[in-house]
Design goal:
The chain is an alpha+beta fold and 170 residues long. 19% of the residues lie in helices and 27% in strands. It is built from 3 helices and 7 strands, in the order H-H-H-E-E-E-E-E-E-E.
Length: 170
């Protein structure tokens, strides 16, 4: 019997300890936050109605489509133009700005130049060879420079000659 009364007493004590108000601190915080000043929310902006736009420029050139420049009739009728059927030389694979003259040679009366490519290959060139991506024909080789005659195409499709020089890198 005594054991039974001890068990009943412990269970009553456990029930009494659980009977306290649950979440009382949370309820107190909500009451206090109701009394704080409230902020003002600005009204939503006015929504402008959609106005459709009609695109009527279909006959204009599309700026995002690549176009091939057609040579004008004057260029095909005997003007300046490169020989597109000629076999390309190895130095025509590189832009002229990336080629470096590193030396000059003379054998008999012929002058030669040593050209270093961007991939560190060394080439021997003479007058009449081609180099660069603009059909550059070597016209003169001196001890310190190479003169080239390049044929370039302008935005109108006309071919024009320009003289370029590569100087010796010391």
């Amino acid at each position: 019997m005594m054991l039974r009364s001890v068990l009943i007493g412990i269970s009553l004590l456990a029930l009494a300890s659980c009977s306290g108000e649950q979440y009382s601190d949370l309820r107190q915080f909500v009451k206090e936050s109701d009394s704080l000043p409230r902020g003002r929310i600005p009204p939503l902006p006015d929504v402008k109605p959609y106005e459709p736009f009609n695109y009527n420029a279909y006959e204009l050139v599309d700026p995002f489509k690549p176009r091939k420049i057609e040579p004008p009739k004057s260029a095909t009728a005997g003007g300046i133009q490169p020989d597109l059927n000629r076999r390309k030389e190895p130095l025509e694979a590189y832009p002229i700005e990336n080629l470096r003259m590193v030396g000059a040679l003379q054998q008999g009366k012929a002058n030669f130049a040593l050209i270093k490519s961007p991939d560190n290959n060394l080439f021997r060139v003479k007058s009449g060879n081609y180099m660069g991506q603009n059909f550059g024909l070597i016209t003169e080789i001196s001890e310190t420079a190479i003169k080239l005659k390049e044929i370039v195409q302008d935005s109108g499709g006309d071919w024009a000659e320009r003289i370029s020089t590569i100087t010796l890198v010391e």
